[in-house]
Design brief:
Pyr_nuc-diS_OxRdtase, seven-stranded mixed beta sheet, 25% strand, binds flavin-adenine dinucleotide, 463 residues, 12 helices, seven-stranded antiparallel beta sheet, EC 1.8.1.7, redox-active center
């Protein structure tokens, strides 16, 4: 396509955009990519990576406490929030540079600029005040935290973006939301010594996860000292003369805190990009509509990742990028596979999960077997920590296929990654039973639960 400046122009230098740009450039395509903020995108700069670093930071007080049962005397520990923030900043800057270098090293051209589309083949780079042309355009602009303008006092609230870089660690925080971001931050702040309240409008935190895990995590978090108020939302946030905030809740309570963090969802970045002007179709939620190959209604424009609001996870954005390159540049139309995605919630304890929850399985299958084990992990025998690990397999009684695997406890995320393989391969409970255990581990329970704990037949629980 010599008539255009680029074979591919990517808008957005996050997980999906960088992968597509890098792989297409490595194929010899002429690729440009524009990022308005920082290469690496949400995941690297203000999502998965800094979040996990903060999870590690917040776990130390429990490690120190648990050490006593193993004979250690740990002197009184102190924590410096500014050190954590600075070290996090150094690490994400390192990763940011690698992301940019990888694109350039593959032959792609990077632009530090906001981009908008002025015509199906023309992109305006605002930072450079110039236009470029491209044969194919990929939109990978991600999403951002949903604001709550209807909430009186919303201007006093922060979002996950700001939570990473607070000047001071608050003494008390209220987090509103019940999704994984809200739950993870509640555990992070609590672990760092902040008086933490989670406020959620629904009946139980973490909708769409297995109810057993949701309830057990809720109980465990409360036992640690995190206040969880379900069936409640904030009605107003008022700044007090002393600078603190009063959050008035629908339940009638008023919480006085130093920070209110809203984690009530994420919305796709599709505004002010010229998309309406070129007639690009969008969903009611403002996400870009795509077909199974990530192609929009305009033939040469594609979209991947969070901006399409399919499954908002980094590995999904990356997978969609790889499929896009196969389809658009390798003559091998490949639809991304969104089935059976293993995932984790880095709560404390952690959740690792893949496949159908019990409730979902029961809706779809007439005979469901549940294998369930709840036990104290070995590390807590000497530490004395009163925390249970929960493991659960959801099996189709007719075909014996394992439909879902759900874990709450140490290293659950790591286990979910490996469980993703047998579940994706459609293996049966008999395959699990034939697998030798690794002893002594927590994971061995997954292959030693020989008898169903209970069955659910036609929606009715039977023993
Ligand atoms: C707090 C938090 C924790 C998370 N934890 C996890 C986790 O543990 N595991 C997981 O899998 N996922 C996690 N996610 C989700 C994950 O970060 C996203 O799914 C992933 O980053 C999506 O990648 P993307 O390429 O679609 O978009 P993004 O990574 O958001 O990248 C989009 C980029 O486009 C840029 N951009 C936007 N508009 C323009 C424009 N007009 N011109 C130029 N550039 C533009 C943005 O600045 C951004 O850098 C987390 C998210 C958050 C917020």
């Amino acid at each position: 396509m010599a008539g255009y400046d680029y074979d591919l122009f990517v808008i957005g230098g996050g997980s999906g955009g960088v992968r597509a740009a890098r792989v297409a450039a490595a194929l010899g395509k002429r690729v440009g990519i524009a990022e308005e903020y920082r290469f690496g995108g949400t995941c690297v700069i203000r999502g998965c990576v800094p979040k996990k670093l903060y999870v590690y930071a917040s776990q130390f007080p429990e490690h120190f406490a648990d050490a006593a049962g193993y004979g250690w005397t740990v002197p009184e520990a102190s924590f410096n929030w500014q050190t954590l923030v600075a070290n996090k900043d150094r690490e994400i800057s390192r990763l940011e540079a690698i992301y940019k270098k990888n694109v350039e090293g593959s032959g792609g051209e990077t632009f530090h600029s906001r981009a908008m589309i002025v015509d199906p083949h023309v992109i305006h780079l605002l930072g450079e005040d110039r236009t470029v042309t491209a044969d194919q355009i990929l939109i990978a602009t991600g999403g951002r935290p949903a604001a709550h303008p209807a909430l009186p006092g919303h201007e006093h609230c922060i979002f996950s973006n700001e939570a990473f870089d607070l000047k001071e660690l608050p003494k008390a925080i209220m987090i509103e939301g019940g999704g994984y971001i809200a739950v993870e931050f509640a555990n992070i702040f609590h672990g760092l010594g902040v008086d933490t309240t989670l406020v959620y409008r629904g009946k139980e935190i973490l909708s769409r996860f297995d109810m057993d895990l949701r309830r057990t995590l809720h109980e465990t978090m409360e036992k640690k000292g995190i206040r969880i108020l379900c069936h409640a939302v904030s009605e107003s946030i008022r700044k007090r003369p002393d600078g603190r905030l009063d959050a008035l809740l629908t339940s009638g309570q008023t919480l006085t805190v130093d920070q209110v963090m809203l984690a009530i969802g994420r919305i796709p970045n599709t505004e002010n990009m010229g998309l309406e002007g070129i007639g690009l179709e969008m969903t009611q939620a403002g996400a870009i509509k795509v077909d199974e190959y990530s192609r929009t209604n305009i033939d040469n424009i594609w979209a991947i990742g969070d901006v399409t609001n399919r499954v908002q996870l980094t590995p999904v954005a990356i997978h969609e990028a790889m499929c896009f390159v196969e389809t658009a540049f390798k003559g091998n139309p490949t639809a991304p596979d969104h089935e059976t995605i293993a995932t984790a919630v880095f709560s404390q304890p952690e959740i690792g999960t893949v496949g159908l929850s019990e409730d979902e399985a029961v809706k779809r299958f007439a005979d469901v077997e549940i294998y369930r084990a709840s036990f104290r992990p070995m590390r807590h025998t000497l530490s004395g920590r009163d925390e249970k690990m929960l493991m659960k397999l959801v099996v189709d009684g007719a075909s014996r296929k394992v439909l879902g695997a759900h874990i709450l406890g140490p290293d659950a995320g790591e286990m979910a990654q490996l469980l993703g393989i047998p579940l994706k391969a459609g293996l049966t409970k008999d395959d699990f039973d034939r697998t030798m255990a690794v002893h002594p581990t927590g994971a061995e329970e997954l292959v030693t639960m020989y008898k169903p704990t209970y069955r659910v037949k036609d929606g009715q629980r039977v023993q």
